[in-house]
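Input structure tokens:
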């Protein structure tokens, strides 16, 4: 399998000089391993999520494989928008995306420390209530029902919510609220839930989540309750190209 076309990306984001990447490097001596092939990804997705020149780079190591695969497809097919990744993935086949998803999912990396929070006690209470109980009157299920008892995710499609920076979480809630971005297939449970959240709730949730330490046992939950699964088309592995 061929490596990703780094040239396109480097030109797009002007990384060539920033990273000292040698565009004309002789590819002959490069071993064909997945670690080599995803070098372009690791420029942005290093050990930790971080704030960079081009946005908030989320962690991807250790996330559920099906989730990563679906997100890669979303970027490639324009359901989730970030130009450098769209360019990088433009001609990449599904089987290759799946291989990359498996590679990053199996990668073990330590998490960043919890963020300090300036949230008020009321905000933190509001967040905890949504996380553990939801709001039945507004058809918002508890976040733990899908994201796992410890919020570390549910295999193989639902990502964890801890270890993500507040700014990244706020950007995700914002993208869903603004409507244009529908990350999954319909019914897209997460965008439906996010649209129900008030801006205050989204802010409180992001602050609370980013301030939580990672639990000692950071395993994914194994089973998604069936009534939750029914709400989410995006948790089914997508086949074919739309
Ligand atoms: C130029 C920087 C950059 C490069 C290179 C890059 N990414 Fe990304 N990636 C981002 C940013 C920024 C986001 C968040 C975009 C958003 O919030 O929609 C992201 C999001 C993601 C996500 C979604 C994470 C989540 O938790 O939802 C995955 C998966 C991902 N990238 C995988 C990859 C892979 C695999 C590669 C290599 C083929 C790659 N990225 C290359 C910057 C980059
Ligand atoms: C019915 C199941 C379900 C419930 C309940 C749910 N989520 Fe989600 N959530 C998902 C799915 C599925 C995804 C992946 C979306 C995608 O494919 O783009 C997701 C993704 C996310 C992400 C993006 C994570 C990342 O790495 O980019 C955030 C943030 C999030 N959910 C927050 C919440 C919060 C906060 C709550 C509670 C108010 C909640 N979710 C309740 C199913 C659910």
């Amino acid at each position: 399998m061929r490596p990703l076309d780094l040239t396109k990306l480097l030109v797009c984001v002007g990384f060539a000089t920033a990273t000292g990447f040698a565009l004309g490097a002789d590819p002959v001596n490069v071993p064909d391993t997945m670690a080599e092939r995803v070098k372009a990804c690791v420029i942005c997705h290093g050990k930790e999520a971080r704030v960079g020149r081009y946005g908030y780079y989320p962690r991807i190591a250790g996330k559920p494989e099906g989730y990563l695969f679906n997100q890669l497809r979303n970027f490639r097919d324009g359901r989730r928008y970030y130009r450098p990744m769209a360019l990088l993935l433009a001609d990449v086949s599904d089987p290759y995306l799946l291989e990359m998803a498996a590679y990053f999912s199996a990668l073990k990396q330590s998490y960043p420390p919890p963020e300090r929070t300036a949230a008020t006690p009321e905000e933190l209470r509001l967040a905890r209530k949504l996380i553990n109980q939801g709001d039945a009157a507004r058809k918002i299920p508890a976040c733990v029902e899908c994201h796992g008892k410890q919020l570390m995710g549910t295999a193989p499609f639902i990502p964890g919510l801890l270890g993500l920076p507040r700014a990244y979480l706020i950007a995700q809630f914002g993208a869903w609220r603004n409507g244009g971005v529908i990350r999954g297939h319909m019914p897209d449970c997460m965008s439906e839930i996010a649209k129900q959240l008030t801006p205050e709730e989204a802010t409180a949730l992001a602050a609370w989540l980013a301030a939580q330490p990672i639990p000692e046992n950071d395993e994914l939950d194994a089973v998604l309750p069936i009534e939750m699964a029914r709400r989410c088309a995006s948790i089914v592995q997508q086949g074919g190209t739309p």
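Residues 58, 70, 130, 140-141, 143, 145-147, 158-159, 161, 164, 169, 172, 183-184, 189-190, 193, 205, 228, 231-232, 234-235 surround heme C (ligand 2) (CB under 6 Å). Residues 11-26 have pLDDT under 50 and may be disordered.
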